[in-house]
Amino acid sequence: MKHIGKIVAVFLVAYVGALTLPYVGHKKVSGNIKKEFQAEDCYGDTKGQERVAYINDNVEALKYRLKMISEAKEEVILSTFDFNADSSGKDVMCALLEAAERGVKVRVIVDGGNGFLDMKVKSAEWFQALASHENIDIQIYNPVNLLKPWKLQARLHDKYVIVDDKMYLLGGRNTTNLFLGDYSDSKNIDRELFVYKEDESSKGSIHQLKAYFESVWNLKDSKEYECKKETEEVKQCLSDLKNRTEKVKKLYPEAYEEWNWQELTVDTNKVTLLQNPIEAENKEPVMWYTITELMKSGDDVTVYTPYIICGKEMYEDLTQVCKKTENVEIITNDVSSGANPWGCTDYLNQKEKIWATGVQVYEFMGKHSSHTKAVLIDERMSLVGSYNMDMRSTYQDTELMLAVDSVALNEQIRQEAEQDKLASRTMTESGEYEYGPEYQEKEMSTGKKIFYGVLRVITVPIRRFL
Fold first, then answer.
1. What angle do helix axes 232-251 and 87-101 make, rounded to 10 degrees?
2. Does the pTM exceed 0.85?
3. What mean pLDDT, rounded, does the chain reach?
4. HSE-up of 28 (CA within 13 Å, CB side)?
């Protein structure tokens, strides 16, 4: 028995090593990336062909998806980190199914970790029903494979919907009740951008995004998800989705009316897609590099991030940004309202290091936890997408952000940021907290305090993998 115990211990150590060691060393950005990316290339001198709308409401976000899919003539593409067969997820499913019934080609790609839980364990029959349609293809990015632990850390974190060559939606919302519709009291605040191309024949960021999608779709790490057998349960789910369409149209009639995209959107000079490497492996921090280079180009920077988990290199870069930029603010969740316990406890451990970089941190106490990922630079540049200010988004996951040169969009998001700062507290130079007039302190329960106390110890050795 002792020998068996030793063998098991050796195996576990080796397995944990295979799971973590490939990601321990942080890569640096290559010289080619530094040569290729120039912050000024994200700006335009004249009005561009693409217009944008800022979506900051969960119900509106669902309506936009339903409307876009209903207008599809040739193709719908959906990429999502998390896809649940809950109420909002089924709303999206039935819209995709209806499009497929019209002859529209539908392609869906989902992250392997969440795909394993939702599409193979919890709600397999619903996704099998969707995959059974001849016009719907589904793939899983980097499916969970316990025989390849060195792959388990890499995840697909992109969230977007593309319709034809005409329009797309990109941001931080997953396809679940937490982010779409009003089906639950538990929800996250999030923001995303709708991009509309006035002239379908012209080139723009939508072509960048479609090329990006094709590269991920054709990656060897992306595997086909099939309906292997149309069981009675699968057939029933397929029937339920078809019957759900009329219910959805009654719930959201506005999504099936005529929309004036011109009136709903604002001008841009340029829209640029920023991305991380796509392979399921330890990545160069390309997204972090491009964001910090853009931040250095301005004088007034405001960052939205749900949580902050920086490594040594990120702290150094953030310090350099603060030296080159007059004002750098970060709006993140107050620990009492944050939805990610790992991010909350790491902030408790690391907040003095964060403040030492020179940033002004606003700890936001909203009605719901903020899931927003955005960067505002001066009065023209806005970045919105899926990137969190943490080591996972920097070195392990696929990530997308849109860099939008638009005074109107920037002003809209800045007004919202100023409002959120009123419901925040921030550290003053004297080392004491200053409270915004709308900040309402939320007392953590004793159980949560104990839980966070334990996590503060646990997170120390594993923080780069959170």
1. 100
2. yes
3. 94
4. 8
**197 Cβ contact list (under 8 Å, min separation 6):** 49, 50, 51, 165, 166, 167, 204, 206
Q: Which residue has the tokens 């309906």?
A: 227
User: Within 13 Å, how many C-alpha atoms sit on residue 274's CB side?
Assistant: 31
pLDDT: which is higher, 207 or 464: 207
Encoded tokens for 290: 């491009």
Q: Does 246 share its domain with 302?
A: no
CB 346 within 8 A of CB 466: yes
240 and 152 in one domain? yes
SS3 content of the chain, % helix, strand, coil (to 5): 45, 20, 35
As a whole number of angstroms, the distance between CA 129 and CA 400 comes to: 29
What pLDDT score was predicted for residue 209? 98
Q: How far apart are the first and last CA of the chain?
A: 35
126-154 per-position pLDDT tens digit: 999 999 999 999 999 999 999 999 999 99
Token code pair at residue 129: 């029903």
Which among 230, 263, 296 is the end of a domain? Answer: 263
Query: Among positive and negative, which fits the CA dihedral 141, 144, 146, 150?
Result: positive
CA-nearest of 383, 384, 206 to 293 is 383
Report the SS3 class of residue 426.
strand
| 258 and 231 housed in the same domain | yes
**Residue ending a domain, choose from 247, 263, 279:** 263
pLDDT value at 203 more than 90 = no
Two structure tokens written together for 264: 């709903």
The SS3 assignment for 14 reads helix
pLDDT band at 201 (very low <50, low <70, confident <90, very high): low
**Count: domains in the chain:** 2
> The CATH number of the domain where 458 resides is what?
3.30.870.10
Domain range for residue 39?
Answer: 27-46+271-465
Q: Looking at the structure, tell me whether residues 135 and 229 fall in a common domain.
A: yes
Q: With cut-offs at 50, 70 and 90, classify the pLDDT of residue 1.
A: low
Q: Report DSSP state, residue 108.
A: E
10 Å CB burial of residue 18 (0-12, 13-18, 19+) is: middle
- Comparing CA positions, the residue from 397, 192, 374, 208 lying closest to residue 286 is 397
Task: List the strands of the sheet with 300-304, edge to edge.
Answer: 270-275, 400-405, 381-385, 374-377, 300-304, 327-333, 360-364, 424-427, 433-435
Query: Of 239, 381, 394, 383, which Cα lies nearest the Cα of 313?
Result: 394
Q: What gap in Å lies between CA 273 and CA 279, rounded to an integer?
A: 18
User: In sequence order, which residues have a C-beta less than 8 Å from that of residue 95 and are 6 or more positions away?
Assistant: 65, 66, 69, 70, 245, 248
In this structure, the answer to whether residues 155 and 132 fall within a common structural domain is yes
> Does residue 342 lie within any of the structural domains?
yes
